[in-house]
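Following up on my earlier thread - several people asked me to post the actual chain instead of describing it. Fair enough. Here it is, all 176 residues.
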Amino acid sequence: SVTRRAVVSAACALLGFGVAFDLFRATGFYFTFVIIVTVIVIALYAGGTLAVGFAVVLSLAADYEFIPPVGGVLDSRAGVEHFAIIISTAVAVAFAASSVRTAFRETMDAKREAETAKRAAEDASSAMEQILALVAHDVRNPLATAKMALLVLVDPGTNDPSREGRAIILRNLEQA
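Reply from S.P.:
Thanks for posting it. Predicted structure:
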């Protein structure tokens, strides 16, 4: 849900800002990559709108807290550059994540369609096998009966002229 994504994004933002704040207090340097990584995580998890929103908030907070002169939001070149980097990162990652999600959904849809088509083909193949078995059974029974009747009529010991015709019929029945 949107609420859950917003709450998790806020928690990530607070965590990222806290890490950046601790690193700044410990070293005296502002590590932009901490905020960038935080924005990337938010973009991947929550999408573009929340990522850009939190990127703006984090950028302004970082500008106020870490980039001299303290207290002037976006009044320095470094602050504006930092803001541009953070916002562009949020937009780029959100766009890339959206593209990947779309490609993933399309791939999963295609996979489901392929599985459905495969099941339909297997069902059709099974139905065809059943029909062929029934047809073969229905053809073989009358042919076998006719063959047995001809076997009785074709006696090798007689010179009856119709015997040869019956033998031809018998061969054709066997071939069928």
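The helical segments are 2-27, 32-46, 48-66, 77-153, 161-175. That should answer part of your original question.
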